[in-house]
Amino acid sequence: xxxxxxxxxxxxxxxxxxxxxxxxxxxxxxxxxxxxxxxxxxxxxxxxxxxxxxxxxxxxxxxxxxxxxxxxxxxxxxxxxxxxxxxxxxxxxxxxxxxxxxxxxxxxxxxxxxxxxxxxxxxxxxxxxxxxxxxxxxxxxxxxxxxxxxxxxxxxxxxxxxxxxxxxxxxxxxxxxxxxxxxxxxxxxxxxxxxxxxxxxxxxxxxxxxxxxxxxxxxxxxxxxxxxxxxxxxxxxxxxxxxxxxxxxxxxxxxxxxxxxxxxxxxxxxxxxxxxxxxxxxxxxxxxxxxxxxxxxxxxxxxxxxxxxxxxxxxxxxxxxxxxxxxxxxxxxxxxxxxxxxxxxxxxxxxxxxxxxxxxxxxxxxxxxxxxxxxxxxxxxxxxxxxxxxxxxxxxxxxxxxxxxxxxxxxxxxxxxxxxxxxxxxxxxxxxxxxxxxxxxxxxxxxxxxxxxxxxxxxxxxxxxxxxxxxxxxxxxxxxxxxxxxxxxxxxxxxxxxxxxxxxxxxxxxxxxxxxxxxxxxxxxxxxxxxxxxxxxxxxxxxxxxxxxxxxxxxxxxxxxxxxxxxxxxxxxxxxxxxxxxxxxxxxxxxxxxxxxxxxxxxxxxxxxxxxxxxxxxxxxxxxxxxxxxxxxxxxxxxxxxxxxxxxxxxxxxxxxxxxxxxxxxxxxxxxxxxxxxxxxxxxxxxxxxxxxxxxxxxxxxxxxxxxxxxxxxxxxxxxxxxxxx
Length: 726
Hints:
726 residues; 24 helices
């Protein structure tokens, strides 16, 4: 049996590939054979008994696995008395998931433990060898009476766990490692060993082009099903492309599908789906994206998205706009099986999650920006950006937080930092911002202070208010919000030493929704800075003569009045798309039911939620530090009530559930205002909201929840709600 420690097994399998299988495979590929290899190892000491590679030049049946079994029985242990028992004493390892022929050979030989490095989808997408899937689907998959085409496509190709053997991918071994840093280390090792096959695949392709054929090439499947039904085969010829370059030409013009230019790469898949194309007819549907292969191991082709990845909508009218943000021409429907966790490569899944989950969340404050296309273009051109993006997505998809927070992955981060030091300034800045983003996940709000400065360097996070280039602009906006959120939760001095200069006009008819949000965020930043850097020192008796960096008291209160006037202007003049679609009458807390502790406030978009939240919290802060002699009787009574603004903030969180609304400022504000909710029904509702936030963003709130429960309990001298964040 294999050792219980998966690290030992991983080390043995990867060493066998690198030391034994790859050299044999290199020789086989040079003579025209395919890249498949196999080994039989001792289950006791994990040393290889037999190592073989594909020999289809001799016979189409001599796949790597079959050749290995044949060698094991006829050469390594020809005498049955000395031969290890395949079932009890051996582990079978294949570089690629075995085809139907090899699965049968492994079964008949008696091996019960099977591992493989590349999946069927990898063989098809990375190595242009789709026949394993084709044969299993065309020969062995039988449609049951009444079974739909979708149901049959969703069926597994074979039983990986059965009475004869158990088959597992190396990725499954990696995922079984509990310690996160250790798991990340082995993920890196797997990627490194997989990269050894890039050159082998390129050489195999060159040999094919030069006329070197294997025996199986003369008899390989020709899609007889399509021929028999007299339909056009949808299988496209596969093209290997060396290097990592942009899908755009040097003149930034999109490539024409009909032009074959060896120096260009067409990337029209779901990972880099920003190449312009002719708009389809309104009633046209796309069953699957066209696929392109990038042969560096950095970008992997894909045809489908994971089930939990939001499905992008097809944009009809805006496909030719240069900055269409999230409205990118992508397929409207995806096969949910190919990129499932079980069947797809982690890199494909990670890239899809980044593009369709993380990117919309990052630029929710500025819809219509070019952040998504720009970051994916840069990833196509710079392998370090691609690798960091994949690392970010993988960190976000982890099931549990690390014990050491944002200090995990030190070795991998050091490698990234070193590679970034060799890049140009802009690429390095983007990469470091992405590193800070990766460490944001599974880090609680109270730990956000200084997180971005630690990885991206201090002093640049306010630049997003200027004409900064994407994708750095959106990333810097996010990190600015992270620092601001840390101040909101901890009420400690913000690391950001200054805020952008506010324009004289808070709102104007010509402003876009993104500009309106930036104005609201700037306003909130100014309020936080005024309170912590001016008002609190003033209340503590620190006067300008003692600290020249502070404004005079009269100027401080003038600034307070100006900021308060802007809050009132917002509630008076905010544009229609920032006004609630539904604003229920206020409900007295005494009469609120346990099922509905807060009246409804429903908004039309995530950015409307975020902008209103910024102004409500600004108002709450200013009212908390209102000058005693200032009278606000000219304003509506509700607008000068701290309780009203706190209730509004809770409603914003509870009654709106846009997937991308939970940015750091929103999360921090809801955590902060929860302290003001004194009724158990309100507190329980907010605890449920925190659970939604954690599920959606992977932000751990256990510490903040524990502090809240302790605060609530001490405030009312009774037990706090028992609802806990998972």
